[in-house]
Amino acid sequence: MGFGGFDHVDMRVPALGAVERFYDELARRLGLTGKRYSTVEFGGASWSEATSDSYNTVEYFEEHVHGRRPLFFGVIEEAGAQPARSRLAFAVDPETLDEWMSVLEAIGARDIERETDESYPAIFFTDPLGTRLEVCARPPRA
User: Fold this and answer.
1) Residue 15 in this model has a pLDDT that exceeds 60
2) Among 7-16, 46-55, 63-72, 100-109, where is mean pLDDT lowest?
3) What is the pLDDT of residues 66-89, one digit of tens each?
4) For residue 101, how far is the Cα from the chain centroid?
5) How many angstroms separate the first and last alpha carbons of the chain?
6) What is the DSSP letter of 81?
7) pLDDT above 60: residue 42
8) Which range is least confidently modeled, 21-25, 33-37, 82-86, 121-125?
9) Which of 6, 19, 83, 95 suits a disulfide with 130, CB 3.0-4.6 Å?
């Protein structure tokens, strides 16, 4: 059967308007320049494209990718959602960690902490609603 990697990530937040600008900028800095709006119906788990004035989901993705699935994550508004207890890690170039510290401060990340153990070069932070995230700069495994 095999494992083909992750297809996508859907994050649930109680108020999309409180984090949309944050994720707009984070996604852009990660190279996910595509953005689209959609509506997710939770009861029937249906999905449909939406306009920028009627949506409950924002999807960020790589544009113009050939030969593989584009990287993709979505932020979905769901009443009563709590900040994730797990942590989502975004892979970045090891040489960019200093720049990422400045970027995260500028876009409104909270609780920013740089990992001091050189075997795990990363920066831990939370979004404006408290979801835990990180940028991780480990070199790829052989």
Assistant:
1) yes
2) 46-55
3) 888 888 899 999 989 998 888 889
4) 16
5) 22
6) -
7) yes
8) 82-86
9) 83
Are the beta carbons of 47 and 39 closer than 8 angstroms? yes
d(CA 116, CA 108): 22
Mean pLDDT for the stretch of residues 120-132: 94
- Considering the entire predicted model, what is its pTM? 0.87
* Count of Cβ atoms closer than 10 Å to residue 129 Cβ: 18
How open is the CA angle 110-113-116, to the nearest 5 degrees? 175
CA distance 26 to 19: 10
- The long-range contacts involving 17-20, CB below 8 angstroms and separated by at least 24 positions, are 18/128, 18/129, 19/75, 19/127, 19/128, 19/129, 20/58, 20/75
Lookup: tokens for 39 = 């509506």
Contact of 116 with 92, CB cutoff 8 Å: no
3-state secondary structure of 79: coil
State the Cα–Cα distance between residues 15 and 17, nearest whole angstrom. 5
Half-sphere exposure of 135 (CA within 13 A, CB side): 23
